[in-house]
Amino acid sequence: MHATKQTHDFEPKIVAFVCTWCTYAGADLAGTSRLQYPANVRLVKFPCTGRIDPLFILRAFQKGADGVLVSGCHPGDCHYMAGNFHARRRFAAFRKLLEFIGVNLSRLEFSWVSAAEAGKWVEVVTTLTERVREMGPMPEFKDLELEEQWSGVLSTPEMAATYRSI
Amino acid sequence: MSRIGVFVCHCGENIARTVDVEKVAAAAARLPGVVFATDYKYMCSDPGQNRLKKAVAEHRLDGVVVAACSPRMHEKTFRSAARAAGLNPFLCEMANIREHCSWVHEDRAEATAKASDIVRMMVARTKKDNRLAPISVQVTKRSLVIGGGIAGIQAALDIADAGHQVVLVEREPSLGGHMAMLSETFPTLDCSQCIMTPKMVDVANHPNITLHTYAELETVEGYIGNFQVTVRKKAKSVVEAKCTGCGVCSTKCPQKKIPNSFDRDLGMRPAIYAPFPQAVPNTPVIDREHCTKFISGKCGVCQKVCGPGAIDYDQQDELIVEPVGAIVVATGFELYDIGRKPEGSAIKGYGEYGYGTIPDVIDGLTFERLASASGPTGGKIERPSDGKEPKEVVFIQCVGSRAPQKGISYCSKVCCMYTAKHTVLYKHKVHDGQAYVFFMDARTPGKNYDEFWRRAVEEEEALYLRGMVSRLYQRGDKVVVVGSDVLSGSQVEIEADLVVLATAVQARGGADTLAQKLGISYDKYNFYSEAHAKLKPVECATAGIFLAGACQGPKDIPETVSQASAAAAKVMTLFAKDQMEREPVIARVDERRCAACFACRKVCPYGAVAEKAIRDRQGKLLRTVASVNDGVCGGCGTCQATCPSKSIELDGYTDEQIDAMIEAL
Asked: What does DSSP say about strands B478-485 and B469-475: parallel, antiparallel, or unpaired?
């Protein structure tokens, strides 16, 4: 007998930037092991966490993500020897910047999930999804995105009214 | 406008059970740029692939998305199908709706929605895909084998017999490894030396094998087909070319009180020594730490007595650079030592067994040396404390192994069998002796293994007691063994003359350092990880590096030899072609935009970025830009994320492709 499925008012959108060698393979293993986790996560595969430009994280928030996960090989296990070290340093600095511009850092998670750690993958995804669900949608960047697409300054009352009416 | 085709696979029921595939295909058909979308039971089957090929031709597709399993499973399959249909294979992408969707979610509506999202993201990405051509690189048909035990020897001989050059590096002064230390081997009781030493000689005499003993790997650069390895050949203080191996130096050396590690410190050796009489090469080395000449500057006896004048006290370590195309790692194992472990270590020592302070408590390998005809006692079983022949010997299995509370959860695999062998060897040498074995389970899977174990119990009268030993302590000249026999439900106390511990097989000390040099991964016990537990047990995840023997996990000799030959076969497969194709995922520099800050060079783990001069027709230097060496680039893309002017792009993972995916969220 299946447990009754809990329904939520808000389903957050989680984007995971993962490296192909460790975390992508770990997520594959979660599948082969038939583990279950919330269906909120969408994966974007990279060769290495070193390839992940912090701008992608900003863009993901802008395009509707409520939470972002970056995950790669454990330090020392990088397929490319040092890519994840660069990523770690880059994101340590980037977190500070995000905090400075007012993003709640609980929406962002960095973790190391190896190709063998299917359980950890499930745990990381589930924790982040539940945490972001509690926090609710992230409107700031989406508003920004709308303004950007407007491609103009909302200087006149007419424009502002039109913008609000969309 | 793109003309993308989407193929949604049912994977039998694997996907279709939780994902409404028809709905996914219908949703895909409505995406801009998609001109064809369908679903099919088994896309990877021959008819499935034919559908794809037919659709490419009929609808003049310029991109294909196969929504099915993980690309790690079938990307190659579908890319070849795309290629056969005349499409550039890199315009074919896979949307992983099995491992990342249907298998991990139960709710049909949720899973279907997620599958549609995944397909939408992959369609967006595919529209930005570029035509790429695979890169051919030259293969250096020479192989490096690290470790000169039975695994390394077998791999080296197989590769060399196939006609390829092999460089074999061994840390000790002689080949042989652990197998040369064994007395006899289970289950046939073949003399280990008799089957091992001829192979050692074969290696030394093989025209295709370059042997570096007393040498270690210093650095590794490059990639599959084109590694550059540097080997540090430690100074032997003996010129190999001159030495005849007569052994006079060892006989005359006045310093003879150094514990011989080959005999597990039971016997003594001089300061200039070959580890054992059958050593290959039999060139001795000077142990500079213990040699009087190196300590005080006096002595020099060996130099005086050496006829050919081979002794050279001023010899220096030598660094040798070898270009190789493949690497076989065969560094073997070491035994768990029950002594005290540093504070905070995950591995605990055995305080209840006296932390290794009781002289008549030895490990299995030490017993091998006692039983070996070439050992310190000439094959007589004599206990270390007083040289008496032990009449009651207690063997304890699973010391360290299968004991998560002591830090190791795995089974060491060989101990059940070698303990049975020890009881047999003991009975053959001490007829009136009694062997007791404390065991958890007797694990004997292997050809003729269980028969051998039964023989030990039934014919050689080893008394097997199922239970653990809680304590060992010295009483007079006896070692008291306190344990339990769970089958009779009683406490047992045995006054033993000798106790032999079947201690756990562990990864070599420094295995992690070597793994980092090679760029291969290892597990939490420092055993090296294979690329796939079932289907790639010999390959490392790092292309061009293969594993053989106990460096990957506990193994017995036949398994080690099989894996070594398998690793050799993998190397030969690689060497069967002059050129090899590699994925064209490499970084390219936009020279017009590059500001020559060389941040990319600083972060490149491969050293693939070089300076390139741009000159005018007169040869006048206009400016310098970064340039990526195709052959050396590993394709991690760290440079692209680092470049401040966005003038370096990784083929296959361009900003456009990633942004398109994010845009389609």
From this structure: antiparallel
Locate B48 and state its tokens: 């499935």
Interface test with A, best of B638, B649, B657, B661 (most A CBs within 10 A): B638
Q: Given this chain, do its domains B142-332+543-575 and B334-506 carry the same CATH topology?
A: yes
CB B540 within 8 A of CB B547: yes
How many angstroms separate the Cα of B592 from the Cα of each of A149, B50, B596, B627?
A: 30, 44, 11, 12
ipTM of the complex: 0.88
Q: Please check whether residue A137 touches B, CB under 8 A.
A: no
User: CA–CA separation, B487 vs B597, rounded Å?
Assistant: 74
CA pair distance B395, B461, nearest whole angstrom: 14
Residue partners of B596: CB distance under 8 A and separation at least 6: B611, B623, B624, B625, B626
Which residues does chain A have within 8 Å of residue B96's beta carbon, measured at their own beta carbons?
28, 43
B-facing residues of A in 62-121 (CB < 8 A) are 63-65, 73, 76-83, 86-87, 90, 114-116
* B chain contacts of residue A79, beta-carbon cutoff 8 Å: 519, 541-542, 636
Closest Cα in chain B, distance from residue A83 (Å): 6
pTM > 0.90: yes or no? no
**Superfamily classification of domain B334-506:** FAD/NAD(P)-binding domain (3.50.50.60)
pLDDT computed for residue B329 by the predictor: 97
Q: Inform me whether the C-beta atom of residue B58 falls under 8 Å from chain A C-beta atoms.
A: no
Whether the CB-CB separation of B218 and B318 falls below 8 Å is answered with no
Q: CB within 8 A of B12, min separation 6: which ones?
A: B41, B42
| Contact present, B6 and B123 (Cβ < 8 Å) | yes
Q: According to the CATH classification, is domain B142-332+543-575 in 3.40.50.150?
A: no
What CATH number matches the domain at B4-127, 3.30.420, 3.90.20, 2.60.40, 3.40.50? 3.40.50
**B225 Ramachandran zone, left/alpha/beta (phi>0; psi -120 to 50):** left
H-run or E-run covering A68: strand A67-72
CB contact under 8 A, A28 and B104: no
Instruction: Give the fold, CATH level 3, of B587-663.
Output: Alpha-Beta Plaits (3.30.70)
One DSSP character per residue, B243-308 reads -----HHHHH-S---EE-GGGTTSSEE-SEE-SSTT-SS---EE-TTT-HHHHHS---HHHHH-TT
Question: Where along chain B do its domains lie?
Answer: 4-127, 142-332+543-575, 334-506, 587-663
Q: Do B72 and A28 touch (CB under 8 A)?
A: yes
According to DSSP, the residues that pair with B396 across neighbouring strands are: B438, B501
Q: Which of A101, A9, A19, A10 is nearest to A61 (CA)?
A: A101
Of B103, B606, B665, the CB nearest to A63: B665
| pLDDT(B41) > 60 | yes
CATH class of A14-136: alpha beta
Q: Which of residues 504-543 of B touch A (CB under 8 A)?
A: 512, 516, 519, 521, 523, 529, 541-542
Taking the C-alpha atoms of residue B601 and residue B626, their distance in angstroms, rounded to an integer, is 8
* Residue A31 host element (H or E): helix A23-32
Q: In this complex, do A51 and B637 lie within 8 Å of one another by their Cβ atoms?
A: yes
Instruction: Calculate how close chain A gets to B219, using CA atoms only, in Å.
Output: 13
pLDDT the model gives residue A1: 40
**Separation of CA B166 from chain center:** 18
pLDDT in tens, B443-488: 999 999 999 999 999 999 999 999 999 999 999 999 999 999 999 9
Residues 6+ apart with CB under 8 A from A116: A26, A29, B523, B529
pLDDT(B30) > 70: yes
With 0-12 / 13-18 / 19 or more C-beta atoms within 10 angstroms meaning exposed / middle / buried, residue B544 is buried
For residue B99, give the nearest of A27, A78, A81 by CB distance.
Answer: A27
